Amino acid sequence: MDMFEQAQQQDMAPLAWRMRPQQLDDYVGQHALVAPGKPLRRMVEAGEVRSLILWGPPGVGKTTLAEILAEACQARLEHLSAVMAGVKDIREVVERARVAQGQSQRTVLFLDEIHRLNKSQQDALLPHVESGLLTLIGATTENPSFEVNSALLSRARVHVLKGLSEADLVEIMQRALTDRERGLGQRRIQVAEDVLPILARAAAGDARRALGLLETACDFTRTNADGETLDASALQDVIGHTASAFDKQGDHYYDLLSAIHKSIRSSRQDAALLYIARFIQGGGDPLDVVRRLAAIASEDVGNADPRALPLVMAAWDAYLRLGDYEGQRAIAHAAVHLAIAPKSNAIDQAWKQAQQFVACQPTLEVPQYLRNAPTRLMESLGHGQGYRYAHNEPNGYPAGSAHDCWPEDTPAQHFYVPTAHGQEERFARMMAWRAQLDAEADNGVASSNAAET
Protein backbone atom coordinates (compact mmCIF):
# COMPACT_ATOMS: atom_id res chain seq x y z
CA MET A 1 0.00 0.00 0.00
CA ASP A 2 1.51 3.37 -1.04
CA MET A 3 1.33 6.62 0.96
CA PHE A 4 -1.64 7.91 -1.07
CA GLU A 5 -3.67 4.78 -0.33
CA GLN A 6 -2.78 4.99 3.37
CA ALA A 7 -3.94 8.60 3.54
CA GLN A 8 -7.16 7.72 1.71
CA GLN A 9 -7.82 4.85 4.11
CA GLN A 10 -7.17 7.18 7.07
CA ASP A 11 -9.72 9.70 5.74
CA MET A 12 -12.35 6.98 5.33
CA ALA A 13 -11.86 5.58 8.85
CA PRO A 14 -14.38 6.56 11.56
CA LEU A 15 -13.50 9.62 13.60
CA ALA A 16 -13.18 7.53 16.77
CA TRP A 17 -10.51 5.37 15.13
CA ARG A 18 -8.61 8.35 13.72
CA MET A 19 -8.53 10.16 17.07
CA ARG A 20 -7.13 7.31 19.15
CA PRO A 21 -4.25 8.64 21.29
CA GLN A 22 -0.76 7.59 20.28
CA GLN A 23 0.91 8.34 23.63
CA LEU A 24 -0.11 8.46 27.25
CA ASP A 25 0.01 12.26 27.49
CA ASP A 26 -2.81 12.41 24.93
CA TYR A 27 -4.93 9.89 26.82
CA VAL A 28 -8.01 11.36 28.51
CA GLY A 29 -9.56 9.94 31.67
CA GLN A 30 -8.64 7.05 34.00
CA HIS A 31 -6.59 9.35 36.23
CA ALA A 32 -6.36 6.67 38.93
CA LEU A 33 -4.30 4.57 36.50
CA VAL A 34 -2.42 6.99 34.25
CA ALA A 35 -1.81 10.14 36.32
CA PRO A 36 1.80 10.75 37.47
CA GLY A 37 2.84 8.13 40.00
CA LYS A 38 -0.05 5.81 39.14
CA PRO A 39 0.45 2.15 38.10
CA LEU A 40 0.17 2.32 34.31
CA ARG A 41 2.06 5.60 34.12
CA ARG A 42 4.93 3.99 36.04
CA MET A 43 4.92 1.04 33.61
CA VAL A 44 5.16 3.36 30.61
CA GLU A 45 7.94 5.45 32.17
CA ALA A 46 9.90 2.32 33.11
CA GLY A 47 9.30 0.70 29.73
CA GLU A 48 8.42 -2.50 31.58
CA VAL A 49 4.93 -3.95 31.13
CA ARG A 50 3.68 -6.96 33.07
CA SER A 51 0.63 -9.08 32.33
CA LEU A 52 -2.58 -7.33 33.27
CA ILE A 53 -6.32 -7.30 32.63
CA LEU A 54 -8.20 -4.08 31.87
CA TRP A 55 -11.77 -4.33 33.11
CA GLY A 56 -14.28 -1.64 32.21
CA PRO A 57 -17.29 -0.67 30.08
CA PRO A 58 -17.06 -0.19 26.30
CA GLY A 59 -15.37 2.88 24.88
CA VAL A 60 -13.21 3.82 27.87
CA GLY A 61 -9.83 3.21 26.23
CA LYS A 62 -8.85 -0.39 26.97
CA THR A 63 -7.47 -1.13 23.49
CA THR A 64 -5.72 2.24 23.29
CA LEU A 65 -4.02 1.66 26.63
CA ALA A 66 -2.81 -1.76 25.48
CA GLU A 67 -1.26 -0.22 22.35
CA ILE A 68 0.41 2.56 24.34
CA LEU A 69 1.83 0.06 26.84
CA ALA A 70 3.19 -2.20 24.09
CA GLU A 71 4.79 0.78 22.36
CA ALA A 72 6.34 1.95 25.64
CA CYS A 73 8.22 -1.32 26.12
CA GLN A 74 9.09 -1.54 22.40
CA ALA A 75 7.30 -4.87 22.09
CA ARG A 76 5.54 -6.53 19.20
CA LEU A 77 1.79 -6.29 19.66
CA GLU A 78 -0.43 -9.20 18.67
CA HIS A 79 -4.21 -8.69 18.61
CA LEU A 80 -6.68 -11.53 19.21
CA SER A 81 -10.38 -11.54 19.98
CA ALA A 82 -11.49 -14.36 22.27
CA VAL A 83 -14.74 -14.52 20.31
CA MET A 84 -13.01 -15.23 17.00
CA ALA A 85 -9.75 -16.92 18.02
CA GLY A 86 -9.29 -20.62 18.64
CA VAL A 87 -6.50 -22.71 20.11
CA LYS A 88 -4.88 -22.79 16.65
CA ASP A 89 -4.68 -18.98 16.58
CA ILE A 90 -3.08 -18.90 20.03
CA ARG A 91 -0.49 -21.47 18.96
CA GLU A 92 0.35 -19.38 15.90
CA VAL A 93 0.88 -16.32 18.12
CA VAL A 94 3.14 -18.43 20.35
CA GLU A 95 5.25 -19.53 17.37
CA ARG A 96 5.68 -15.94 16.18
CA ALA A 97 6.58 -14.92 19.73
CA ARG A 98 9.29 -17.58 19.85
CA VAL A 99 10.78 -16.25 16.62
CA ALA A 100 10.68 -12.70 18.01
CA GLN A 101 12.26 -13.86 21.26
CA GLY A 102 15.15 -15.26 19.24
CA GLN A 103 15.62 -11.74 17.91
CA SER A 104 15.54 -10.29 21.46
CA GLN A 105 12.07 -8.81 20.98
CA ARG A 106 9.20 -9.11 23.42
CA THR A 107 5.63 -9.95 22.44
CA VAL A 108 2.57 -8.41 24.03
CA LEU A 109 -0.68 -10.26 23.32
CA PHE A 110 -3.75 -8.04 23.50
CA LEU A 111 -6.70 -10.36 24.03
CA ASP A 112 -10.02 -8.59 23.62
CA GLU A 113 -13.09 -9.95 25.42
CA ILE A 114 -10.91 -12.25 27.48
CA HIS A 115 -14.00 -13.31 29.45
CA ARG A 116 -15.11 -15.28 26.34
CA LEU A 117 -11.98 -17.45 26.42
CA ASN A 118 -12.92 -21.09 26.95
CA LYS A 119 -11.00 -23.55 29.12
CA SER A 120 -9.00 -25.10 26.27
CA GLN A 121 -7.97 -21.64 25.04
CA GLN A 122 -6.93 -20.58 28.53
CA ASP A 123 -4.98 -23.82 29.02
CA ALA A 124 -3.16 -23.23 25.72
CA LEU A 125 -2.24 -19.70 26.78
CA LEU A 126 -1.30 -20.18 30.43
CA PRO A 127 2.17 -21.81 30.15
CA HIS A 128 3.42 -19.10 27.79
CA VAL A 129 2.24 -16.33 30.12
CA GLU A 130 3.89 -18.16 33.01
CA SER A 131 7.18 -18.50 31.13
CA GLY A 132 7.17 -14.84 30.11
CA LEU A 133 7.15 -15.64 26.40
CA LEU A 134 3.90 -13.65 26.17
CA THR A 135 2.97 -10.58 28.15
CA LEU A 136 -0.81 -10.72 28.32
CA ILE A 137 -3.03 -7.66 28.26
CA GLY A 138 -6.64 -8.76 28.47
CA ALA A 139 -9.66 -6.52 28.01
CA THR A 140 -13.09 -7.34 29.38
CA THR A 141 -16.42 -5.76 30.16
CA GLU A 142 -17.22 -8.61 32.58
CA ASN A 143 -15.98 -9.32 36.08
CA PRO A 144 -12.78 -11.31 35.45
CA SER A 145 -12.99 -13.05 38.82
CA PHE A 146 -16.09 -14.86 37.54
CA GLU A 147 -15.02 -15.52 33.97
CA VAL A 148 -11.23 -15.96 33.83
CA ASN A 149 -9.34 -19.08 34.89
CA SER A 150 -7.99 -18.53 38.42
CA ALA A 151 -4.52 -19.69 37.37
CA LEU A 152 -4.45 -17.14 34.55
CA LEU A 153 -5.98 -14.47 36.77
CA SER A 154 -3.27 -14.98 39.40
CA ARG A 155 -0.63 -14.05 36.81
CA ALA A 156 -2.29 -10.86 35.59
CA ARG A 157 -3.11 -7.86 37.75
CA VAL A 158 -6.62 -6.49 37.22
CA HIS A 159 -7.01 -2.74 36.62
CA VAL A 160 -10.52 -1.27 36.70
CA LEU A 161 -11.40 1.42 34.14
CA LYS A 162 -14.37 3.71 34.77
CA GLY A 163 -16.82 5.22 32.33
CA LEU A 164 -15.53 8.61 31.20
CA SER A 165 -16.95 11.74 32.82
CA GLU A 166 -18.88 14.38 30.90
CA ALA A 167 -15.86 16.68 31.14
CA ASP A 168 -13.58 13.97 29.73
CA LEU A 169 -15.90 13.38 26.78
CA VAL A 170 -16.22 17.10 26.07
CA GLU A 171 -12.42 17.38 26.03
CA ILE A 172 -12.12 14.44 23.62
CA MET A 173 -14.68 15.98 21.24
CA GLN A 174 -13.02 19.40 21.43
CA ARG A 175 -9.75 17.82 20.37
CA ALA A 176 -11.48 16.15 17.44
CA LEU A 177 -12.97 19.48 16.33
CA THR A 178 -9.61 21.25 16.39
CA ASP A 179 -7.27 18.50 15.13
CA ARG A 180 -6.53 19.35 11.49
CA GLU A 181 -4.69 16.12 10.67
CA ARG A 182 -6.83 13.39 12.18
CA GLY A 183 -10.00 15.18 13.21
CA LEU A 184 -12.43 17.76 11.85
CA GLY A 185 -10.20 20.81 12.31
CA GLN A 186 -9.97 21.67 8.62
CA ARG A 187 -13.73 22.26 8.52
CA ARG A 188 -13.50 24.97 11.23
CA ILE A 189 -16.96 24.15 12.54
CA GLN A 190 -18.42 26.66 15.00
CA VAL A 191 -20.16 24.62 17.71
CA ALA A 192 -22.78 26.11 20.05
CA GLU A 193 -21.82 26.02 23.71
CA ASP A 194 -24.47 23.46 24.72
CA VAL A 195 -23.82 20.94 21.93
CA LEU A 196 -20.85 19.03 23.33
CA PRO A 197 -22.34 18.55 26.83
CA ILE A 198 -25.53 17.20 25.23
CA LEU A 199 -23.55 14.74 23.13
CA ALA A 200 -21.42 13.77 26.14
CA ARG A 201 -24.49 12.95 28.21
CA ALA A 202 -25.92 10.90 25.35
CA ALA A 203 -22.65 8.96 25.07
CA ALA A 204 -22.92 7.84 28.71
CA GLY A 205 -19.20 7.50 29.43
CA ASP A 206 -18.26 5.96 26.05
CA ALA A 207 -15.65 7.94 24.07
CA ARG A 208 -16.18 5.89 20.93
CA ARG A 209 -19.87 6.67 21.03
CA ALA A 210 -19.27 10.35 21.75
CA LEU A 211 -17.04 10.72 18.70
CA GLY A 212 -19.49 8.75 16.59
CA LEU A 213 -22.32 11.07 17.62
CA LEU A 214 -20.15 14.13 16.94
CA GLU A 215 -19.20 12.86 13.51
CA THR A 216 -22.85 12.24 12.64
CA ALA A 217 -23.93 15.60 14.07
CA CYS A 218 -21.39 17.35 11.85
CA ASP A 219 -23.30 16.03 8.83
CA PHE A 220 -26.12 18.37 9.92
CA THR A 221 -24.14 21.61 10.13
CA ARG A 222 -25.50 24.80 8.61
CA THR A 223 -23.35 26.84 6.26
CA ASN A 224 -23.34 30.63 6.28
CA ALA A 225 -20.90 33.44 5.54
CA ASP A 226 -18.85 32.55 8.61
CA GLY A 227 -18.55 28.88 7.66
CA GLU A 228 -20.18 25.83 9.20
CA THR A 229 -22.14 26.00 12.46
CA LEU A 230 -23.59 23.26 14.64
CA ASP A 231 -26.27 24.00 17.21
CA ALA A 232 -28.50 21.93 19.47
CA SER A 233 -31.43 21.97 17.04
CA ALA A 234 -29.56 19.48 14.86
CA LEU A 235 -29.03 16.96 17.63
CA GLN A 236 -32.46 15.42 18.10
CA ASP A 237 -32.28 13.36 14.93
CA VAL A 238 -28.70 12.40 15.77
CA ILE A 239 -29.34 11.29 19.33
CA GLY A 240 -32.94 10.12 19.13
CA HIS A 241 -33.89 8.00 22.10
CA THR A 242 -30.71 7.33 23.99
CA ALA A 243 -31.08 4.02 25.78
CA SER A 244 -28.71 3.36 28.64
CA ALA A 245 -27.92 -0.05 27.26
CA PHE A 246 -26.16 -2.78 29.15
CA ASP A 247 -25.31 -6.44 28.70
CA LYS A 248 -28.22 -8.41 30.16
CA GLN A 249 -25.88 -11.18 31.22
CA GLY A 250 -23.16 -8.86 32.48
CA ASP A 251 -22.17 -7.30 35.76
CA HIS A 252 -24.05 -4.05 35.19
CA TYR A 253 -27.32 -5.96 34.87
CA TYR A 254 -26.81 -7.52 38.29
CA ASP A 255 -25.40 -4.28 39.70
CA LEU A 256 -28.67 -2.52 38.86
CA LEU A 257 -30.80 -5.28 40.38
CA SER A 258 -28.57 -5.11 43.46
CA ALA A 259 -28.99 -1.32 43.60
CA ILE A 260 -32.78 -1.68 43.40
CA HIS A 261 -32.78 -4.26 46.18
CA LYS A 262 -30.44 -2.37 48.51
CA SER A 263 -32.20 0.96 47.95
CA ILE A 264 -35.52 -0.59 48.97
CA ARG A 265 -33.93 -2.36 51.95
CA SER A 266 -32.49 1.03 52.98
CA SER A 267 -35.99 2.61 52.70
CA ARG A 268 -34.84 4.96 49.90
CA GLN A 269 -37.83 4.94 47.60
CA ASP A 270 -36.54 7.61 45.20
CA ALA A 271 -33.25 5.81 44.64
CA ALA A 272 -35.19 2.60 44.03
CA LEU A 273 -37.30 4.31 41.35
CA LEU A 274 -34.15 5.74 39.76
CA TYR A 275 -32.50 2.32 39.40
CA ILE A 276 -35.71 0.66 38.22
CA ALA A 277 -36.06 3.29 35.48
CA ARG A 278 -32.39 2.88 34.57
CA PHE A 279 -32.79 -0.90 34.41
CA ILE A 280 -35.89 -0.83 32.22
CA GLN A 281 -34.66 1.95 29.91
CA GLY A 282 -31.41 0.02 29.50
CA GLY A 283 -33.33 -2.92 28.05
CA GLY A 284 -33.93 -4.95 31.20
CA ASP A 285 -37.09 -7.03 31.46
CA PRO A 286 -39.56 -5.38 33.89
CA LEU A 287 -40.54 -8.86 35.07
CA ASP A 288 -37.00 -9.29 36.40
CA VAL A 289 -37.69 -6.27 38.61
CA VAL A 290 -41.00 -7.75 39.81
CA ARG A 291 -39.32 -11.04 40.67
CA ARG A 292 -36.75 -9.15 42.71
CA LEU A 293 -39.54 -7.18 44.45
CA ALA A 294 -41.25 -10.46 45.38
CA ALA A 295 -38.00 -11.65 46.95
CA ILE A 296 -37.63 -8.36 48.83
CA ALA A 297 -41.19 -8.62 50.17
CA SER A 298 -40.33 -11.80 52.06
CA GLU A 299 -36.64 -11.24 52.69
CA ASP A 300 -36.62 -7.64 53.89
CA VAL A 301 -40.21 -6.76 54.85
CA GLY A 302 -41.81 -10.04 55.85
CA ASN A 303 -44.41 -9.88 58.59
CA ALA A 304 -43.52 -6.30 59.48
CA ASP A 305 -46.02 -5.56 56.70
CA PRO A 306 -47.88 -8.72 55.63
CA ARG A 307 -49.52 -6.75 52.80
CA ALA A 308 -46.19 -6.37 50.99
CA LEU A 309 -46.05 -9.72 49.21
CA PRO A 310 -49.71 -9.67 48.05
CA LEU A 311 -49.17 -6.14 46.75
CA VAL A 312 -46.15 -7.24 44.70
CA MET A 313 -48.07 -10.20 43.30
CA ALA A 314 -50.91 -7.84 42.40
CA ALA A 315 -48.39 -5.58 40.62
CA TRP A 316 -47.07 -8.61 38.75
CA ASP A 317 -50.59 -9.51 37.65
CA ALA A 318 -51.34 -5.88 36.74
CA TYR A 319 -48.23 -5.70 34.55
CA LEU A 320 -49.26 -8.84 32.67
CA ARG A 321 -52.84 -7.58 32.24
CA LEU A 322 -52.15 -3.92 31.45
CA GLY A 323 -49.11 -4.29 29.24
CA ASP A 324 -45.72 -2.67 29.44
CA TYR A 325 -46.46 1.06 29.58
CA GLU A 326 -49.26 1.07 32.18
CA GLY A 327 -47.86 -1.98 33.93
CA GLN A 328 -44.60 -0.24 34.76
CA ARG A 329 -46.51 2.11 37.05
CA ALA A 330 -47.79 -0.88 39.00
CA ILE A 331 -44.19 -2.01 39.46
CA ALA A 332 -43.23 1.46 40.69
CA HIS A 333 -46.25 1.40 43.05
CA ALA A 334 -45.09 -1.86 44.63
CA ALA A 335 -41.47 -0.71 44.86
CA VAL A 336 -42.39 2.49 46.71
CA HIS A 337 -44.60 0.53 49.13
CA LEU A 338 -41.76 -1.89 49.90
CA ALA A 339 -39.30 0.97 50.45
CA ILE A 340 -41.60 2.84 52.85
CA ALA A 341 -42.82 -0.29 54.68
CA PRO A 342 -41.29 -1.24 58.04
CA LYS A 343 -38.43 -3.70 57.60
CA SER A 344 -37.76 -7.14 59.04
CA ASN A 345 -35.50 -9.97 57.96
CA ALA A 346 -36.90 -12.31 60.62
CA ILE A 347 -38.52 -14.59 58.02
CA ASP A 348 -35.29 -14.80 56.02
CA GLN A 349 -33.24 -15.61 59.12
CA ALA A 350 -35.78 -18.14 60.39
CA TRP A 351 -35.84 -19.98 57.06
CA LYS A 352 -32.03 -20.15 56.90
CA GLN A 353 -31.85 -21.52 60.45
CA ALA A 354 -34.51 -24.14 59.72
CA GLN A 355 -32.60 -25.29 56.63
CA GLN A 356 -29.33 -25.51 58.56
CA PHE A 357 -30.99 -27.43 61.40
CA VAL A 358 -32.51 -30.02 59.06
CA ALA A 359 -29.25 -30.37 57.12
CA CYS A 360 -27.52 -31.39 60.36
CA GLN A 361 -30.30 -33.83 61.33
CA PRO A 362 -31.61 -35.40 58.11
CA THR A 363 -33.34 -38.37 59.83
CA LEU A 364 -35.90 -36.40 61.85
CA GLU A 365 -39.25 -38.19 61.91
CA VAL A 366 -42.78 -36.84 62.16
CA PRO A 367 -44.30 -37.61 65.61
CA GLN A 368 -47.09 -40.17 65.66
CA TYR A 369 -49.87 -37.74 66.55
CA LEU A 370 -49.15 -35.57 63.46
CA ARG A 371 -49.05 -38.44 60.99
CA ASN A 372 -51.75 -39.00 58.40
CA ALA A 373 -54.16 -41.86 59.17
CA PRO A 374 -56.33 -42.47 56.08
CA THR A 375 -56.66 -46.25 56.70
CA ARG A 376 -57.52 -48.50 59.66
CA LEU A 377 -54.07 -50.05 59.47
CA MET A 378 -52.45 -46.68 59.99
CA GLU A 379 -54.84 -45.94 62.85
CA SER A 380 -53.91 -49.27 64.44
CA LEU A 381 -50.25 -48.26 64.20
CA GLY A 382 -51.01 -45.17 66.24
CA HIS A 383 -50.99 -42.60 63.44
CA GLY A 384 -52.89 -39.49 64.46
CA GLN A 385 -53.52 -40.64 68.03
CA GLY A 386 -53.19 -37.84 70.55
CA TYR A 387 -53.64 -35.07 68.00
CA ARG A 388 -55.51 -32.10 69.45
CA TYR A 389 -57.71 -30.19 67.02
CA ALA A 390 -56.90 -26.52 67.58
CA HIS A 391 -60.46 -25.29 66.97
CA ASN A 392 -61.73 -27.44 69.82
CA GLU A 393 -59.14 -26.07 72.25
CA PRO A 394 -59.49 -23.07 74.56
CA ASN A 395 -58.28 -19.95 72.77
CA GLY A 396 -57.92 -22.02 69.58
CA TYR A 397 -54.51 -23.20 70.77
CA PRO A 398 -53.44 -26.68 71.96
CA ALA A 399 -51.21 -25.47 74.78
CA GLY A 400 -48.35 -27.38 76.36
CA SER A 401 -44.98 -28.71 75.29
CA ALA A 402 -46.47 -32.18 74.75
CA HIS A 403 -48.14 -30.79 71.65
CA ASP A 404 -45.31 -28.62 70.33
CA CYS A 405 -45.38 -30.54 67.00
CA TRP A 406 -41.62 -31.20 67.16
CA PRO A 407 -40.09 -34.63 66.44
CA GLU A 408 -39.72 -36.82 69.52
CA ASP A 409 -36.45 -36.48 71.42
CA THR A 410 -35.73 -33.21 69.61
CA PRO A 411 -35.88 -30.07 71.76
CA ALA A 412 -38.08 -27.41 70.21
CA GLN A 413 -36.15 -24.60 68.52
CA HIS A 414 -37.12 -20.99 68.03
CA PHE A 415 -36.23 -20.13 64.43
CA TYR A 416 -38.63 -17.23 64.03
CA VAL A 417 -37.85 -14.27 66.28
CA PRO A 418 -40.07 -11.32 65.32
CA THR A 419 -38.74 -7.80 65.43
CA ALA A 420 -40.46 -4.83 67.05
CA HIS A 421 -41.16 -3.32 63.63
CA GLY A 422 -44.63 -2.89 62.14
CA GLN A 423 -47.03 -5.81 62.50
CA GLU A 424 -44.30 -8.05 63.91
CA GLU A 425 -44.65 -6.27 67.22
CA ARG A 426 -48.19 -7.68 67.40
CA PHE A 427 -46.91 -11.11 66.36
CA ALA A 428 -44.33 -10.98 69.16
CA ARG A 429 -47.06 -10.27 71.73
CA MET A 430 -49.15 -13.16 70.38
CA MET A 431 -46.19 -15.54 70.56
CA ALA A 432 -45.36 -14.43 74.12
CA TRP A 433 -48.97 -15.01 75.20
CA ARG A 434 -48.95 -18.52 73.71
CA ALA A 435 -45.63 -19.27 75.41
CA GLN A 436 -47.32 -18.30 78.68
CA LEU A 437 -50.19 -20.70 77.90
CA ASP A 438 -47.64 -23.47 77.28
CA ALA A 439 -45.96 -22.80 80.61
CA GLU A 440 -49.31 -22.80 82.43
CA ALA A 441 -50.36 -26.06 80.75
CA ASP A 442 -47.07 -27.74 81.63
CA ASN A 443 -47.47 -26.59 85.25
CA GLY A 444 -51.13 -27.64 85.45
CA VAL A 445 -52.37 -24.08 85.80
CA ALA A 446 -55.74 -23.13 84.28
CA SER A 447 -55.10 -20.98 81.23
CA SER A 448 -56.39 -17.51 80.63
CA ASN A 449 -59.25 -17.28 78.15
CA ALA A 450 -58.33 -13.82 76.96
CA ALA A 451 -55.96 -13.75 74.01
CA GLU A 452 -53.46 -10.91 74.02
CA THR A 453 -53.56 -8.97 70.75
From TrEMBL:
<dbReference type="GO" id="GO:0005524">
    <property type="term" value="F:ATP binding"/>
</dbReference>
<dbReference type="InterPro" id="IPR003959">
    <property type="entry name" value="ATPase_AAA_core"/>
</dbReference>
<keyword id="KW-0067">ATP-binding</keyword>
<dbReference type="GO" id="GO:0000731">
    <property type="term" value="P:DNA synthesis involved in DNA repair"/>
</dbReference>
<dbReference type="InterPro" id="IPR021886">
    <property type="entry name" value="MgsA_C"/>
</dbReference>
<dbReference type="GO" id="GO:0008047">
    <property type="term" value="F:enzyme activator activity"/>
</dbReference>
<protein>
    <recommendedName>
        <fullName>Replication-associated recombination protein A</fullName>
    </recommendedName>
</protein>
<dbReference type="InterPro" id="IPR032423">
    <property type="entry name" value="AAA_assoc_2"/>
</dbReference>
<dbReference type="Pfam" id="PF16193">
    <property type="entry name" value="AAA_assoc_2"/>
</dbReference>
<dbReference type="GO" id="GO:0006261">
    <property type="term" value="P:DNA-templated DNA replication"/>
</dbReference>
<keyword id="KW-0547">Nucleotide-binding</keyword>
<feature type="domain" description="AAA+ ATPase">
    <location>
        <begin position="48"/>
        <end position="164"/>
    </location>
</feature>
<dbReference type="InterPro" id="IPR008921">
    <property type="entry name" value="DNA_pol3_clamp-load_cplx_C"/>
</dbReference>
<dbReference type="InterPro" id="IPR003593">
    <property type="entry name" value="AAA+_ATPase"/>
</dbReference>
<dbReference type="InterPro" id="IPR027417">
    <property type="entry name" value="P-loop_NTPase"/>
</dbReference>
<keyword id="KW-0235">DNA replication</keyword>
<dbReference type="GO" id="GO:0016887">
    <property type="term" value="F:ATP hydrolysis activity"/>
</dbReference>
<dbReference type="GO" id="GO:0003677">
    <property type="term" value="F:DNA binding"/>
</dbReference>
<dbReference type="GO" id="GO:0017116">
    <property type="term" value="F:single-stranded DNA helicase activity"/>
</dbReference>
<dbReference type="InterPro" id="IPR051314">
    <property type="entry name" value="AAA_ATPase_RarA/MGS1/WRNIP1"/>
</dbReference>
<dbReference type="Pfam" id="PF12002">
    <property type="entry name" value="MgsA_C"/>
</dbReference>
<comment type="similarity">
    <text>Belongs to the AAA ATPase family. RarA/MGS1/WRNIP1 subfamily.</text>
</comment>
<comment type="function">
    <text>DNA-dependent ATPase that plays important roles in cellular responses to stalled DNA replication processes.</text>
</comment>
<dbReference type="Pfam" id="PF00004">
    <property type="entry name" value="AAA"/>
</dbReference>
